[in-house]
Amino acid sequence: MALANFIDRAATAASQVLADFHLGEFKAALEKQVVAVAFDDQAASCAEGQATLDLAVRLLARLYPVLAILPLDSAASSQAQALERLAKSINPKVGIRRSGKSATVCLVAGATRPSLRCATFFIGSDGWAAKLSRTDPVGSGSSLLPYGAGTASCFGAANVFRTIFAAQLTGAELDENIDLSLYSYNRTKAGDANPTNLPVDFGETHLVGLGAIGHGTLWALARQSGLSGRLHVVDHEAIELSNLQRYVLAGQAEIGMSKAELASTALRSTAFEVEAHPLKWAEYAARRGDWVFDRVGVALDTAADRLAVQGALPRWIANAWTQEHDLGISRHGFGDGQACLCCMYMPSGKSRDEHELIAEEFGIPEEHEQVKTLLQTNAGVPNDFVVRVATAMAVPFESLAPFVGQPLRSFYQQAICGGLVFRLSDGSRQVRTVVPMAFQSALAGIMLAAELVKHSAGFPMSPTTSTRVNLLRPLGCHLHDPKAKDSSGRCICSDEDFISAYRRKYGKRVEPLRNISAA
Question: What SUPFAM superfamilies does UniProt report for this protein, alphabetically (predicted)?
Fold first, then answer.
């Protein structure tokens, strides 16, 4: 058994939430764990249970070097081999145990209580509702919905992480019981009868950003039967090794594949008419010509990219995000008196340019003009530049020498974002950009998929702009987070020209500008 070959990226994510982090100690703690996934035929024979098991293994295999795959009855045994293959597709050197005697923590799906002497979390679902219990099996529902099932896996993986690293997490108590519906996000209504028979036509929908959050969205949509329509998937990048840390659909075989191509492959068995666009959003919008975007799911990394999507004036937007301490979903019309997507990301003060941020990450802020030139020309980085970075980072030049002659962006993505400098410095050189844990990104993506389905189906939408969840703490009672419209008057949703353009495109009646401030 061995840690995954992208463990430095996973360690970078952990370093941002764990106190007193040391890379060597972190890896040693992982190597002591045997994380078990136990299940019976009740889980293995139904779509919800299969979804829970599938995502649980996809999440756990990215971090822990030893998994115990434990069928609890003979009928569930056939599922075990498929889960083992899935784990090895992510980390070929993952250790697989078939006994729970050495398990240190366990996730259990189904209706059976295993005889294990370790921390145990029972996970399952009932349609839209995700369930977790510390004391009793919760079972898996009979619907074909993946939303509660996948969310339960994320809650389970988060509690495994909080169990193992409790000493380094402030307030990292464990969840005792969860019964949360992704239909309402109201815990008191988690047992309500929500619609489960869902033939839904998406019409023409866009999913912009096929990174970690986008993977969570694709995972859910691919497992939802009855979905149809034209789905445009937009992302210009390809899968890199470091992406495997939290891209739940990606394994070793997908490295180098276009993200748009992977999305098409993931949705191949659905009724969607998928159109893949390996382009940046701005390039895609310019080529499209017709700037009518009825429904857009946003799974992008930066505020600037989100602002660009809102600037194209889609009819309706669902936006998913991850931050250092939480994740969430927000819902946006335009010119309706509520916060638009730009309101959520309005810049305040002067923001630094990309080349300044990258120069700072390299430890050479004074060289930002050279960084700017290298970015603009896409020229290979010279030897003396790499020497200066190695000196500033206090790491051996020999380890960075292979990057001489490569484009600066590739150097940055592999040495900094990919975790190489982080490993060489034993975790002392951290990436300033927030790198979420896999279970955080996956849940944000599942929430985005749920919002797209609910909106396409015409279900009542949440009256609040945003909903947020912190997976590093016990689930709170109040998840809805109303966001006020930007009050400065600078946002495009306060501009009559933009409102008029929106009205011309969609014929949608909007609140007069004079009434927006009073809304």
Answer: Activating enzymes of the ubiquitin-like proteins (SSF69572)
